[in-house]
Design brief:
mainly beta
Length: about 70
């Protein structure tokens, strides 16, 4: 996943039980799932429910690996 400065990837809820696993490779990202937001740096991993509205936001140009499980 490659995001440019201030880019946002906003997603509607996926199927019930779906989870996403996000590993930050470069720069800083924030991930919001429902009402919870985490701020991530390189090497950080977030695992969160994707069966509700969720968003990945870049603070600068960023690279990450995104795995969608049980979509």
């Amino acid at each position: 996943l490659q995001l440019t400065n201030r880019a946002r990837l906003t997603s509607a809820p996926h199927s019930p039980g779906c989870r996403e696993h996000l590993t930050v490779l470069e720069a800083r990202l924030s991930v919001t799932s429902g009402d919870a937001t985490d701020h991530l740096a390189p090497g950080d991993v977030a695992r969160y429910p994707a069966a509700r509205p969720h968003e990945i936001a870049a603070e600068t140009d960023a690279r990450a690996i995104l795995i969608v499980q049980d979509s």
